[in-house]
């Protein structure tokens, strides 16, 4: 009995596709590394503008340290008429 298989790729083709994907990912990682190095250099060039320890640059002025108090609301059961 012969079995016909269609729509499959050979192992060599799969390896070639994987090698291409790995090469693309490697280039992307290298580009991101360069971007990170550039940003770090920019930060190092501005030492007087560094965030002081204890300052939170993400926190906004309107933010509060504590969560607002939760009001206790008591529900009274009303009998159904």
Keywords for this structure?
81 residues; 0% strand; rod-shaped
Descriptive account of the structure:
With 81 residues, this protein is mainly α. The chain contains one helix and no strands. The chain is rod-shaped. Residues 45-62 have a biased composition (Basic and acidic residues). Keywords: Coiled coil. Residues 8-42 form a coiled coil.
SSE topology:
Layout: H1 11-45
Please sum up the structure shown.
The chain is an all-alpha fold and about 80 residues long. It is built from one helix and no strands. Helix content is about 45%, strand content about 0%.
The tally of helices reads: 1
Biggest pleated-sheet summary: none
Low-confidence stretches: none
Average residue pLDDT: 76
State the share of residues found in helices, binned by percent: 40-55%
C-alpha-based Rg, rounded? 30 Å
Biased composition (Basic and acidic residues): 45-62
Coiled coil: 8-42
Region (Disordered): 45-81
Biased composition (Acidic residues): 63-74
